[in-house]
Amino acid sequence: MTFAGLLDGLERPTFQAIHVASLADAALPRSLEFAIGLDDTRRRHVIASIKPFRPTSNQALPYLLIQCTDIQPIRDSEASLVERERRWNHALVGSSSGVWDQRMDTGEMSYSDVWRSIRGLGPDDPIAGTTEEWLDMVHPDDRSRVLHSIERQNAGDPEYTTFEYRERHKKGHWIWIECRGACVEWDDEGQPVRIVGTDTDITERKAAEEALARMSRRLKLALDASGIGVFEADFSTGMCEWDSGMRAIYGLDTDPLIRINGEWEDMLHPDDAERVQTKVNRHVEQLIPFSDEYRVVLKDGSTHYIRSRTLPFIDGDGHRKMVGANWDITADLELRKELERAKTLAEARNRDLEQAKARIEHIALHDHLTDLPNRRYLDEMLESLDGEGRADKGGLAILHIDLDRFKQINDTLGHNAGDAMLRHVARILRDNVRGGDFVARIGGDEFVFVARFDGNQRMLTALAERLISELRKPVAYDGQDCRFGASIGIACDRTGTVAPRQLLLNADIALYNAKNSGRSRYAFFSRDSHSRMVDSKRIADDILRGLEQNEFLPFYQFQFDARTLDVSGAETLARWRHPEHGILTPDKFLAVAEDIGVVGEIDGLILERALADMTRWEKLGLSIPKISVNVSSRRLHDPSLKKKLSALDFDPGTVSFELLESIFLDDNDDQAIDNLRHLKKMGIDLEIDDFGTGHASIVSLLRLSPKTLKIDRELVQTVPGSRARRNLVGSIIDIGHSLGIRVVAEGVETPDHVRVLRGLGCDVLQGFGLAVPMPFEDTVTFLRDESWRSCALSA
């Protein structure tokens, strides 16, 4: 076989070209590398030295001398080296480590692509050219340490083969680098010439280590703060490892290794030992987590309560183990007991407070005397009824009850008697309460009865009549019979459309009408009564405004001597100059003024203006011997009356107060008697007005000793035509004279009245036939003209 036949098919053309060139005497290479095929699968590399050879005979053809040297071992070694290098490169890439190579003699530096990517650098990004430039990229806290580590690493110190530091990433943040390096070449003097190493990004590992460190610190702090001790028992070795917390709990300062079935078991309380050890053995055998509480007796003899949480397991070596935590709960149990005692005490106190609260609420919502609901309770109840949607709940009725003549019981028998009567009223009202009804005391002697209403007013009438009848019956107290009555105002609504508070207001209006109708009776609310109430309210407002605007003024009706018809005095009458209705007489406003309590103020104003008019008459040369003014019951009982009269300027005997018999005889009390005595001391005469209406008595006249009696006009009007009436009037005049009392006849309207009364011995005449009431402006002309004397001539 020829040499060409041994060659690999790919290399034969090369050999043939060399052969051709040799025939042409061209220059040939000294040696070439060929692959010779030994068989179909094996090849062997050789180096062939080729030399052309020409024979001496011109007929012979030139040929080639070929000398082959086997270099297959060298190629195998090179291939192995390439494969190892390839594997090394793959390993470095797989490990994410960047390779660096530094030559100290030439200053050359080479870095792998991974080394660059760790720092965020691309293939074309510049790299620090000097150590100083590179150090600027190292974290300031690491620079001195890094320089020292590099120095020791270059010196071949095995302790510094690996070191860690922080370097700034291209994006600006810090990354942790683990640098591994070693000197691989030295010069003749033993100085490092080449250093090769790897850099690995360990930022995530450092973060994990820091997180683990933080967790460990927190766990240690938690264990220290909580006083928990941790242990791990190995039942295969029979030893248990206790941390410092466990040893502190059990009062031990020994080695952390504790024998199983040793110290711990000896400290178990005798009453707990068997139970606890049985439980431990069972759960460890079954590998079931468990918890327990038990007592231990420490070396100092003290008993402590321990709580344990335990987890049995088998480790990788097949050892049966148990890890757990213990903590001393003695103080917790003591605290729990104390808290339980405090809780028990607090619950008892809360019960007391709830009871006290209930009592306070009851007191706040009930009248202390009768234990009936009070006004506040009533308001809340009415509010709740208003919120129920009463259109669906049916009708409602309210009875406003006010006791009559109750004040007299308090005044005569004392407040204890009055309280007893109020409790009696409360019992009667309770006895008449049906299911769903409600009764409350809302004031001194006022009560409210709230009842469901189905539209049957007869039921309400029967209830009102029954209550009035029961309350009218005498009540025995301290050996005496107490009598009083009740007036009731009723308001009802069957449709459920009227607000409960409005119903209460309507019942109050009805009560006002019942009292004005004579007391001890009932009245239903009506629109007419409401209109009258509204009118009264308007009049009351006008009265108050009129007092502020000085609209009240005196009118005068002169009185005359029965024999001479000379003026003997003037009765002062109150009038109201209303801006819309003109001059109003007392019958238009007196009742309302009495209700709002300003009659005394009106009386005082009229007296002051009358005294001023007397001064004006005197200046005009007109002689009016005296004036008389009406005095209301409220003014007669005014404690400040003395002070008010003392501020006035008048001569004794020039002023007299007219008292209705009914006022004096019905409302007599200590305050009124004291005021009447003071009037006499001031020189103010007293007159009994409307005498003969049936209230007066001879005894009361003797006790009062008035200066004047005024015979009521109803007795005087028929005197001229009735002998019986003349005899009656004559008897009154005789009685007055026998007591030294001057007699005035009212209602003198005709000359016959003048003639008959003069004949009966009457002292003074007063009536429309002589003079009508007139304002001051008209009195001057009237007094100067003396037109009244024509009556005497006619007589």
Write up what this structure looks like.
InterPro entries: Biofilm_reg_signaling, EAL_dom, EAL_sf, GGDEF_dom, Nucleotide_cyclase, PAC, PAS, PAS-assoc_C. This is EAL domain-containing protein. Pfam families: EAL, GGDEF, PAS_3. This protein is an alpha+beta fold and 795 residues long. It folds into five domains: 68 residues, no CATH class; 131 residues, Beta-Lactamase (2-Layer Sandwich); 102 residues, PAS domain (Beta-Lactamase); 160 residues, Reverse transcriptase/Diguanylate cyclase domain (Alpha-Beta Plaits, 2-Layer Sandwich); 242 residues, EAL domain (TIM Barrel, Alpha-Beta Barrel). It is built from 29 helices and 30 strands. β22 and β23 form a beta hairpin. The chain is elongated, with a radius of gyration of 66 Å. About 1% of the residues have low confidence.
Structure summary:
With 795 residues, the chain is an alpha+beta fold. 44% of the residues lie in helices and 25% in strands.
